């Protein structure tokens, strides 16, 4: 159960964003590669620096002011040190990270998330129309290249930071619209804390624009669902529906999707199905084919929750077909895992394993860690059913490695099961108490 919001007009010719062919910039050597260890380290420094610079600029602070503010705490930084960190020349040590996090009101885990995502060479958006950038970010998002989408959204925000209000729309609202989409891309890349902070920033910036603010609350509700914080998710969903009343059917459909998701996680399966049907009606009215892939599968999962496996299989298969039709590999992988879960509940273990492996052939090359985790967990459950006495140590070790990036996803069923069952098994196995 998952939802997204980036959209764009299809079949629209546009200049493509570019990366330097040799990876070189003014601060990088020729031959730079973001895939080798040294290149990843440089990319991580630059990503963290860009994030801290953006956090400072959003609060309208100069480097001198930030340096002065650190003097009141236990960790002091000079303006030169802050400048070097923001340019990606130095990676902040523990003291610097804590000092900047304290002054700029950011969670240190957000720095870790941005460093982990930093594998792309920064986008060169020179002379590219803003609408074309938006379209290319949406294209990258729906094909599952979430890191590229984040890089493009970062470039768009850098462009907006140099602009001023115009007669058509306040600059804050234009920034908020990009931040909403960036929050969704961060979520799909597994950076939940950064995504939540971004969605909350969009809510603040979008005051006075009900449509954008509704979309920001939609993103926030979905994120709180991922974290398992249902009261907060429910509050955000209700606010999204209220704000979307004066918006078009697309935004209304998204609002109904997050309301349905809260109901689903609360195990109110029939109520959730009805809400998804309303979302489906709005999506059809808006011609929102991208989100139909979500909704069809979500309705199937509601049927599964009510024990109607045949209905569930029909709807989820339809979602897989739509994902293939609209070139949405990340959603195809997600719904293949769901088909595996349906087969598992019917004790068709070979079929369930086949679906899980098909999902991983899509998710692993794209580094879709949550989908890979769900598929591997399904394979572990199958292995335990087939051979209850075998420990399945290698798979559990791999799941534990994936879990390190997913510990905030407490609203995801497989993550909760892993925490409740597998961690106890691993601890007992390593201490020699059981196998």
In short:
The chain is mostly helical. Helices cover 69% and strands 0% of the residues.
Provide key terms for this protein.
single chain, 435 residues, mainly alpha, 434 Repressor (Amino-terminal Domain), Serine Threonine Protein Phosphatase 5, Tetratricopeptide repeat, 20 helices, 0% strand
CATH arch. level architecture of the largest domain = Alpha Horseshoe
CATH homologous superfamily annotation of the largest domain: Tetratricopeptide repeat domain
Q: State the helical fraction.
A: 55-70%
Q: What assembly state would you assign to the polypeptide chains in this entry?
A: single chain
CATH classification class of the largest domain: Mainly Alpha
Query: The CATH topology of the largest domain, please?
Result: Serine Threonine Protein Phosphatase 5, Tetratricopeptide repeat
* Structural class by SSE content: mainly alpha
Question: CA-to-CA gap between the ends?
Answer: 33 Å
Along the chain, the helix and strand elements come as HHHHHHHHHHHHHHHHHHHH
Low-confidence stretches: 9-15, 18-26, 29-34
Mean pLDDT: 86
Round the Cα radius of gyration to an integer and report it. 22 Å
Number of domains: 3
Q: Name the shape in a single word.
A: globular
β-sheet strand percentage: under 5%
Query: What's the total number of strands?
Result: 0
Largest sheet report: none
- Tally the helices: 20
Please give a structural write-up:
The protein is mostly helical and 435 residues long. The chain has 3 domains: 37-117, Orthogonal Bundle (434 Repressor (Amino-terminal Domain)), CATH 1.10.260.40; 127-285, Tetratricopeptide repeat domain (Serine Threonine Protein Phosphatase 5, Tetratricopeptide repeat); 343-435, no CATH class. Helices cover 69% and strands 0% of the residues. It is built from 20 helices and no strands. α2 (63-70) crosses α3, α7 (146-160) packs antiparallel against α8 (171-188) and α13 (269-286) packs antiparallel against α14. The protein is globular. 49% of the residues are buried.
């Amino acid at each position: 159960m998952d939802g997204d919001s980036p959209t764009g007009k299809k079949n629209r010719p546009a200049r493509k964003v570019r990366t330097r062919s040799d990876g070189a910039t003014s601060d990088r050597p020729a031959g730079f590669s973001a895939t080798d260890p040294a290149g990843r380290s440089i990319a991580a420094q630059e990503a963290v620096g860009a994030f801290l610079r953006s956090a400072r600029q959003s609060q309208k602070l100069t480097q001198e002011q930030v340096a002065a503010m650190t003097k009141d705490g236990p960790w002091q930084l000079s303006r030169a040190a802050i400048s070097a960190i923001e340019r990606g020349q130095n990676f902040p040590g523990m003291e610097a990270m804590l000092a900047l996090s304290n002054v700029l009101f950011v969670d240190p885990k957000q720095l870790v998330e941005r460093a982990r995502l930093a594998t792309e060479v920064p986008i060169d958006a020179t002379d590219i129309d803003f609408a074309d950038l938006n379209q290319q970010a949406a294209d990258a998002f729906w094909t599952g290249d979430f890191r590229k989408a984040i890089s493009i959204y970062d470039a768009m925000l850098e462009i907006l930071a140099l602009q001023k209000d115009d007669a058509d729309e306040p600059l804050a609202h234009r920034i908020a619209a990009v931040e909403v989409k960036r929050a969704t891309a961060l979520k799909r890349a597994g950076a939940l804390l950064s995504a939540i902070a971004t969605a909350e920033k969009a809510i603040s910036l979008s005051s006075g624009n009900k449509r954008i603010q509704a979309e920001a609350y939609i993103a926030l509700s979905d994120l709180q669902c991922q974290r398992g914080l249902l009261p907060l998710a429910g509050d955000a969903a209700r606010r999204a529906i209220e704000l979307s009343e004066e918006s078009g059917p697309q935004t209304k459909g998204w609002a109904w999707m997050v309301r349905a998701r809260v109901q689903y996680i609360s195990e109110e399966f029939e109520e959730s199905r009805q809400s998804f049907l309303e979302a489906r009606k709005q999506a059809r009215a808006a011609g929102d084919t991208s989100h139909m892939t979500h909704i069809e599968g979500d309705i199937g999962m509601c049927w599964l929750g009510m024990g109607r496996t045949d209905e569930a299989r029909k709807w989820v298969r339809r979602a897989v077909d739509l994902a293939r039709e609209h070139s949405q590999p990340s959603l195809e992988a997600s719904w293949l895992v769901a088909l595996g879960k349906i087969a598992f509940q019917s004790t068709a273990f070979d079929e369930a394993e086949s679906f899980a492996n098909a999902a991983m052939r899509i998710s692993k090359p794209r580094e879709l860690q949550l989908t890979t985790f769900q598929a591997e967990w399904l394979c572990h459950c199958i292995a335990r059913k087939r051979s209850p006495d075998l420990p399945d140590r290698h798979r559990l070790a791999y799941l534990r490695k994936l879990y390190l990036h997913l510990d905030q996803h407490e609203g995801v069923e497989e993550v909760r099961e892993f925490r409740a069952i597998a961690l106890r098994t691993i601890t007992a196995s390593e201490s020699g108490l059981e196998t």
